[in-house]
Write a structure and sequence with these properties.
Length: 134
């Protein structure tokens, strides 16, 4: 089990949140969902509707695309403190890639609907996060 304090300390080290105050980090920790993916599990799949940001707490994730011919092409890999899916906050187009756990992987998941609620409570939070995305 990951304590709330450990979640906050982790979020501090994620570059997407580097300009956030402790209070803002606490708000994000309060809405984060801890999920464990076993080796080979999909975090998300290509052509599905995006709805979350994934923050890698432990483990590794490979991002890839499947061609129209069924061939898998690796784009990149992610590890601890990396994040993926952040584009879903700006664009709700279907995902253009798939993400799969390379090893047993623990992530903090932030659902977009919850993030938008936090944006209403902390007006500058969205600006700080979008500045890091762009």
């Amino acid at each position: 089990m990951i304590s709330r304090m450990d979640q906050i300390n982790f979020l501090e080290k994620v570059t997407l949140f580097k300009n956030l105050s402790r209070d803002e980090l606490e708000s994000l920790a309060s809405i984060s969902e801890i999920r464990i993916f076993e080796k080979g599990d999909f975090l998300f799949q290509q052509n599905t509707q995006p709805d979350s940001i994934f923050l890698i707490y432990q483990g590794d994730v490979v991002l890839f695309v499947t061609t129209p011919y069924g061939e898998k092409k690796t784009i990149t890999s992610f590890g601890k403190y990396d994040f993926l899916g952040e584009g879903s906050l700006m664009d709700d187009s279907p995902r253009s890639t798939s993400a799969k756990a390379e090893f047993d992987t623990t992530v903090l998941v932030l659902h977009n609907s919850d993030i938008r609620k936090i944006f209403k409570l902390h007006s500058l939070l969205s600006v700080k996060i979008f500045t890091q995305i762009i």
